[in-house]
Amino acid sequence: MRKSVMMLTILLAGVSWLWVNQKTEAPPRPMRIVARPPMENIAHERLEALTTLNEIRSTLGMSSLQENATLQQAAQAHAEYLVRHRLFTHFEESTRRGFTGSAPMDRALQVGYKARFVGENLSTKSRNGLESLYGLFSAIYHRFGFLNPSFDEVGIGIAQDKKDPRNTAFVYLMGNSEIARLCSTRSFHGTGRYVYGVCADTQHRIDAQAYDRARNAIKEGNPKIVIYPYDGQTEVSPVFYQETPDPLPGYDVSGFPVSVEFNDRFFRTVTLVSFELFEEGGGKVTPVRLLTKRTDPNHKLTRHQFALLPLKRLKYGTTYRVKLVYRNKSKTYTLTWHFTTIQPKETLKTIREKETTLTLKAGEGVWLYFEPNNPHDVLGTMQYPENVYVWFMDRNTIRLVLDPRRTQGFEIKGSGRRVQIRVAR
Known about the structure:
The chain is globular, with a radius of gyration of 24 Å. It contains seven helices and 26 strands. The longest helix is centred in the N-terminal third of the chain and has 18 residues, at 42-59. It has helices spanning 42-59, 69-85, 104-110, 129-138, 140-146, 177-182, 208-220, and strands at 5-9, 14-20, 66-67, 118-124, 153-160, 168-175, 194-195, 206-207, 225-228, 233-236, 239-240, 254-255, 258-262, 271-279, 288-291, 305-310, 319-328, 331-341, 347-351, 355-361, 365-370, 381-385, 388-394, 397-402, 410-414, 417-424. With 425 residues, it is of the alpha+beta class. The protein starts with a strand and ends with a strand. The protein has a five-stranded mixed beta sheet, with helices on both faces.
C-alpha cells in the first residue's frame, strides 16, 4: 500500500523597520510562543496587537501609545498595498494600484498627518497580531522602534488576502502628537530661533523653545533606561532569525537579543563599560556580538542604544542573568536583571544527530527541536505522514501529536536530519 506523505515548506514571516525623520534647523504581556489559527477578525487583531504592545510598554514603565485615526488610515492603505502586490517593503511605486505615497512619511502626510516625524514597523505572512508583534520584538531595530521614548501615538493597519490567508501584512505607523500639534498652530513670525522642515508644510516655522518642549515632553514621561527583555520576564523566545535591514549578516539563526536604551533626555553621554549575558548556574554566554552606534552594520542605532546578540540560540526553559556596566558623568553604575526562556508544556526532544530514533505514545504531544549545527541551519521542507499533526513553533522547532489510533512507526525528514518515530503500545 502506498504511503501518503505530507510536505510543508516553512514561510518566514518577514519583518522590516524604517525610521523617517526629516532634517531640521534647530538649536543645538509576557511573550510566549502561540500556535493559533489564522486571523478571522481584523478589528480584534488590531485591538489585541495594540493592547499587547501597550502592556509591554507599561511593564517597562513607559507611556502607552494612543490610537491615531490618521496614522491608522495611512498604515491600512500600505498594508492593503503589500497584500495586493505580495510585497515586503516600506516603499510604494506610483505605477502600482493602491499607491498612496512612496515612503511612510509621504503616506502619513497624504492622509492629513501634520508632522514629518514618523516611524514604521511592518511584518508580512504573520498568522495573527500576536505573532506579528512577537516577531517584531525579537528583531532588534523593530524593538527599538516600538520602545522609542519619543513616540506616543500609533496607527495599525492589517490586511489579509481572502483567497490566500497566509498573505498578510501588519503595518505600525508611529508618531509624536506634541510635534503634530505644533504643526497645526500658526507659523512662527517673531524674532529668535525657530525650527522648520518638520511639518507637512516645510516652510511652517515653530519657535525653537516650543519645539524642544514638545520633543522632550514625551521623553520626560518615559523611563531613564529601558531594558529588554525586562527583569523577571518569562516565556522569552530563545531565538532570533532575520530582519530587514539585517543586524547580523551571515546568520540565519541566532539567540534572542538583549537591549538597553538610555533616554537622551536624561543622558547626554553614556559610556558602555561591559554588557554580558550569563546562564544562571552556568558560565558566560559566548560567542556574542555587541551592537553600538559604531559597530551597527546598518547605522541605525543611536549613541544611546546598545544590543547584545548571542550568536547561538539560547536554551529552552533556562534563566539568564544580564550584567550591564556603564559610566555617566565620571561615575560607574552596574545593572543586573534576569529573564527566563520558554519552557515547553510538553516533552521536549532535542535532535542533534543526522539519524535519531524516538519512542512516543499515540496521542502524546511532543516538541522536536532541531538544534542548529551552523548559523544557517533552519528547517526548510519537512516530510511526514498525513495523519501526523504538526505545528511549527519556530523555524527549528515543531510540535508533533500522533493520532491516538496510530500503531505503526514512521519517519520525519528535515534540515538534513531523519527522525525515526516508534509508537509505544
